[in-house]
Structures are given as structure tokens and as C-alpha cells.
Known about the structure:
Two copies of one chain form a homodimer.
Chain A lengths: L5 E5 L3 H13 L3 E5 L2 H11 L3 E5 L7 H10 L7 E6 L4 H9 L4 E4 L4 H14 L7 E4 L2 E4 L4 E4 L2 E3 L3 H12 L4 E3 H9 L8 H14 L4 E4 L3 E4 L2
Helix pairs in contact in A: 2-3, 6-8
The structure holds a DNA duplex (30 and 30 nucleotides).
Amino acid sequence: xxxxxxxxxxxxxxxxxxxxxxxxxxxxxxxxxxxxxxxxxxxxxxxxxxxxxxxxxxxxxxxxxxxxxxxxxxxxxxxxxxxxxxxxxxxxxxxxxxxxxxxxxxxxxxxxxxxxxxxxxxxxxxxxxxxxxxxxxxxxxxxxxxxxxxxxxxxxxxxxxxxxxxxxxxxxxxxxxxxxxxxxxxxxxxxxxxxxxxxxxxxxxxxxxxxxxxxxxxxxxxxx
Amino acid sequence: xxxxxxxxxxxxxxxxxxxxxxxxxxxxxxxxxxxxxxxxxxxxxxxxxxxxxxxxxxxxxxxxxxxxxxxxxxxxxxxxxxxxxxxxxxxxxxxxxxxxxxxxxxxxxxxxxxxxxxxxxxxxxxxxxxxxxxxxxxxxxxxxxxxxxxxxxxxxxxxxxxxxxxxxxxxxxxxxxxxxxxxxxxxxxxxxxxxxxxxxxxxxxxxxxxxxxxxxxxxxxxxx
DNA sequence: TTATTTTATTATCAAATTGTTAAGCAAGGT
DNA sequence: ACCTTGCTTAACAATTTGATAATAAAATAA
Lengths: 224, 224
């Protein structure tokens, strides 16, 4: 099950980023980092993490502002958010939690404790990524039937969606025309060969991305 | 709001119990207390709290033992548990979280922070039978068959209500027409396809809100 | 190079799907 | 019995989708 949870860390201190990244990766998480508030939001949109660890004091937007912005975005309504900070006065802790965060940790960082907390949260909030495919900046969500490329939603018709999802399910693999026909149209229905081409063309057009390669005489493959 | 959340506090220091009880009750929770591990388990069984706050050092069974026992009981598999303690070394904190707790607070107690944490946890876990759904400004109360949008009550017929509640139970997820038919009409009854559309239309009309999206050839999804 | 095969592109049309409205029925209340 | 309400359906409009044919372009083989 290639279903590792994704964590985004935003902090302006490189040391902290490194320590956290190292420890979380050692525990089997996929980690990305950002070094200020604005890039955290950008990264979040492209990376779509399951959990975001936000330092409160950062250049640009501070952690609480970032949290508020994220919580207003439907995509991040349910994303877990943990604040991380040196400030440990009650008022700001309360403020942080009330802005929609799920937990609040104070520095100095104790990696083991952080990991326990992260696991405790994931234990509670089961996140199902099984119907999601992500390749680079392209995300395919079978459950929601949406395709997002660099935080921009692309609308595909059903057959187009299924075709892209099929190809993207195994990036690099060449799908024979027969395989494609069987997977998407089944063995009952019979359609002409040009039909596939036309759908491929529409996907290429809508994605406006050079990601589907033709292997002449064989089939097509997806590769970013 | 009939549905006050119930909290059980277990600690051997009467002062702590009193402070916590006072603050939590002031915030609208129903609180019971226990003064050692064994009575905590007893109280839990009769009181059936939504959240248990456990001191680690207690006579009889300590907090971690209590937590382990509770977690082995199906009844308390999903009950929220917060540890409370004067010990703040990493190892015991990790141990506490790994024994199945959801959070770990160190003394001295800061009531405001505690309450924020409690609320953050309840925000995540829809304890009461998931009878209530809240998405943005839209509230759906399955128990009372009431829909409220921005403090304005909207009256839906039963089928409309069930349909909306179904879609809203997993915002973003596309429900296939078949899924919808099975969930709301069951496998026995067979109704025409237009029936769903008509109900969808009525919901859209009554809510006057662009929240139900058609995914042609697939189904419908709710998204605010 | 030329011929042949395979794929790309485009426009078009038929089929499938959904939206909308009105009307019929059944159940419950007055 | 009458009225109201909710559910379903029929009928039609509007829209979207998918498949194909026709033609161009590209790759491959002879």
C-alpha cells in the first residue's frame, strides 16, 4: 500500500525544518517544507498534505493567518494543522486553537513527542488516500471526480477522466490499445480505433500538458 | 442545545478536580469526577462520557493503566482521552500517547488552554452519533430533521432531507445515482431516474445555494 | 523516395444524460 | 369530503457526451 501520509512543515528556521523532516521521514511520512507563510499556502495547494505543521512566527504571513486562510479553503477544511512556536503564553495558544488548529506544540521541539502527537491525530482522523493519485503537480481524485493541476481544476468528461486515470494509475507503463478498450469500454461494446485517439487528444488539449506519449504501433503511456 | 458533551475527570487531588469541573461546566459541559483509577473505570461505565481527562499518578490504577483498560473495551474505543500530569518527561508523554490517548497536558493546569484543547478535539470528532452535520454556515440535524442556513431554518421534505444529508455526509464525494438509490430508496423499491433529479432540483431551489454539483454521467456531489 | 501504416485533428451528428415543468396519486390532517 | 403535502412520473427542453467519418500529418517499411 503506497499510501504514506503527507506532511507539510512551514518554519523560517532551516535547522528546525531539517530536524523535523528527518524525524518524520524516518517514521514513514512524506515531507515537504516551506520557509514562510505565503509559500506554505502555495505548497499546500500543490502538495495537498494530510497534515500541516505551522510555525507561528514567520516572515510574510504568520502561522495563524495562514491557518485562517487555509480553513476558509474547502480543500483544507479537514486538513490537520498543528502549530509550533516558541511563544507559550496561554492567550496565543488559545488563539491558535480557536483559529481552527488541531494542536499546539511549544519549542524546543521534542521529535519523539511530535511524532506521537502526529500519530495520535492520524489515529483519530482516518484519511483515505486510496482513491487519489498524485503525480508531480497533477492530482486525480476518483472520489471527487476532479483533476487538479497546480491548484487549477480541470474538468474532464467521464470517458476522458477514466482514460486519464487509467494511464496515470501506472505512470510509465505503456497501455496497449486493447488494454484500454477492455478497461474502459469492456469487452461487450465495440468502438472504432479512432475513438481512443480522439479522447487522448481532448485530454491533451484540456490539460495543456505534455504528459501522454504515443508509442506508435503499441499504445499510450502517461509520464510527467 | 440538549446535547451537552459529557466529560469525566479523574484525579486524586480534590483541588484540581474542583478547578477543572468549575471551568468545564462554565463552558457548557456536563462533568463528573473520580478520585482514583478504579472508580474512574466504574464511573466511565455508568456515565458514558464523551471525553475522559486522566491524571497519570493516581492511587489504585494509574492513568496509563486506566487508558489501556478503557481502550480494550469496545464501548470506549472511540472515547476521547486526555492525560494530565505533573511529569513532563518525553518518554512518559510518548508512552501516554501511544497507549491510545488523544492528548497530553502538563500541570500546572491552564483552564483556558484546556478548554481550547477540548473544543479542538470535539470539533474533529462528531461524538453524538454523527446526527449533526455542519458545513460552513449550513447545519443539518438528522435527529430533528432540521436544516439551518445562516440561522435561517429551511424546511425540506423527508426525501429531500435524506438526499441532502447523504450528499453532505461526505462533502466533495461524488455519489453515483446507484449509491443514492440504494441509500435512500433501498434495493427493493425501484423509482425512475428523473426522481432523483427532481429532488435535487427542489433542494437547490429551497436552499437557494449553489452547493450541489452535477457530474454528468456519474452522479452528484455536495460542496459548499 | 515512395508507399504503407498508424496516429492526429477536425467537424459533425446521434445518443445519452440531465433540467424543468406540470400533473397524478396517495397519505394524513381538518 | 376537502384540502394540503410529499413523492413519483411523464413529457419535453436543454445540454453534454461520445463515436465516427473525413482528412491531414507523421512515422515506418519497402
